[in-house]
From TrEMBL:
Major location (coarse): nucleus
InterPro entries per record: Nse1 (IPR011513), Nse1_RING_C4HC3-type (IPR014857), WH-like_DNA-bd_sf (IPR036388), Znf_RING (IPR001841), Znf_RING/FYVE/PHD (IPR013083)
Keywords from the named record: Chromosome, DNA damage, DNA recombination, DNA repair, Metal-binding, Nucleus, Telomere, Transferase, Ubl conjugation pathway, Zinc, Zinc-finger
Biological function: RING-type zinc finger-containing E3 ubiquitin ligase that assembles with melanoma antigen protein (MAGE) to catalyze the direct transfer of ubiquitin from E2 ubiquitin-conjugating enzyme to a specific substrate. Involved in maintenance of genome integrity, DNA damage response and DNA repair.
Gene behind this protein: Nsmce1
Any one GO BP annotation for this protein: double-strand break repair via homologous recombination
Keyword Repeat: no
PROSITE patterns from the UniProt entry: ZF_RING_2
Protein name in the entry: Non-structural maintenance of chromosomes element 1 homolog
Source species: Atrichornis clamosus
Classification lineage: Eukaryota, Metazoa, Chordata, Craniata, Vertebrata
Length: 237
């Protein structure tokens, strides 16, 4: 009920504008931004009230079918915040920024990453797709440039020639991925958000993010699956 929502101040508006222009903001940056916006606007600031501050903004975004969502970096477990358009749950939200052929390359790259065992696709495999596109064929040099743009725009991350989905992409497209890759997409058994880079229990098939695996097994005397209690055979990162 937006009638009951706390009032949106200039501090809230400024915070939202920066978040939207960044595409995605790391947790510590969001906390600094929260403090800066409150102090600039001379409104009450409490360091532990970022989530309340964001939920006030979200109550005003609700009628616009938008929301600030919190997600986790699969690499290091750090919190990130992104503004998500709830009205467009498909890759169509990228349609205004990219051509049809670029979107097709992105979808095929996404297929490779999500269907892979470790949540990565090599640049070689992705570039091999470039001349199999239905829209029209793409030269490998062109495809390399497009991949670079996807990394710059924070839809993909790249490390040593291996590509995975950026935290921004996972936050924004979680629902799209879960409904379009129902057979393979899984949620982390610990934090319950979508897990692309994950370890999987060989006995019962549950998955866990690498940072969640690290955290969970730190407290255990021996690594056993949190669901079926069988020995966890993957190497603990």
């Amino acid at each position: 009920n937006t009638g009951m929502a706390a009032q949106m101040t200039d501090a809230h508006r400024r915070f939202l504008q920066v978040l939207m222009s960044n595409g995605i903001t790391e947790g510590s940056e969001a906390r600094k931004l929260h403090q800066h916006c409150c102090e600039t606007d001379k409104v009450y600031y409490a360091h532990d009230k970022l989530d309340d501050f964001i939920s006030t903004i979200n109550s005003h975004l609700q009628p616009l079918f938008m929301q600030i969502r919190k997600g986790m970096s699969e690499e290091d477990g750090r919190a990130h915040y992104a503004v998500v358009n709830l009205a467009e749950t498909e890759v169509t939200k990228m349609a205004s920024d990219y051509t049809e052929i670029e979107l097709e390359l992105f979808r095929k790259t996404m297929d490779l990453i999500i269907l892979s065992e470790n949540g990565f696709a090599s640049s070689t495999d992705i570039l091999n797709l470039s001349d199999q596109l239905k829209t029209k064929k793409m030269k490998k040099k062109e495809a390399e440039q497009v991949l670079k743009v996807f990394v710059e725009d924070k839809w993909l991350s790249e490390k040593n020639g291996e590509y995975t989905l950026h935290t921004r992409c996972i936050i924004e497209m979680e629902q799209y991925i879960l409904s379009n890759y129902q057979d393979v997409a899984r949620k982390c058994n610990i934090c319950h958000s979508l897990a692309i880079q994950s370890q999987v229990c060989e006995s019962c098939g549950i998955g866990m993010h690498l940072p969640c695996v690290r955290k969970y097994f730190r407290a255990q005397t021996e690594p056993r699956c949190p669901k079926c209690n069988e020995f966890w055979s993957c190497d603990i990162p």
